[in-house]
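Same chain as my last thread, 217 residues:
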Amino acid sequence: MHFTRKQNILLAIIPRLASALIRLLGCTLRFEDVCAPCTVPGDTLPGPGVFGFWHRSLLMAAYRFRNQGFVIVISQSFDGELIARTVERLGFLVVRGSSSRRGAQALIAMERLVRQGCVAAFTADGPRGPVYIAKPGLTRLAQRTTQDAGAFHLAPQRAWQLKSWDKFLIPKPFSRITVSWPQHVKVTADEDLDTAHSRVQHMMETAIRMAEDEDAR
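reply #2:
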């Protein structure tokens, strides 16, 4: 990708600053896991694995799962480049592509890394939404790698919500973050994609409800 001189300057500055701010904010946060029966936090399991989460939780996920070698897909755009360079500084592996650009190549690259033992995490409704509507990439990857599809959702006790398509959340310092882990979905290689994806969508929605129910207590 080619960037303007101004964009290159921003790319040299913003990822360093953003990753430092995420670490600074993150160290004030308190994460509490809520798991469905017979389910444990996915980051305590050995790889490989395939998980989905909602785009609005990206900042919190970037801190919670830092330095664990998670693989994520980031869109090929200037904004995507900013995010990619930021999360790489937090210890993530990045595959470039999206549902609209280089999606097939990105899926192949993710499949290769999962087969090598990595944990893949999708912003299921990214990069442009609509919010809370999962794209089929998570389901396809689970099918191709014969991995169960998992999900997690991060819900802050207190946060600023941006006026963006994803209703992006910035947790306020010293907030409690509920991290919900619903039961995984078994996706077989010969299963109809639409049928499998409807169950994955339901799992993703369950993750939201679990976190909301916990916060309501």
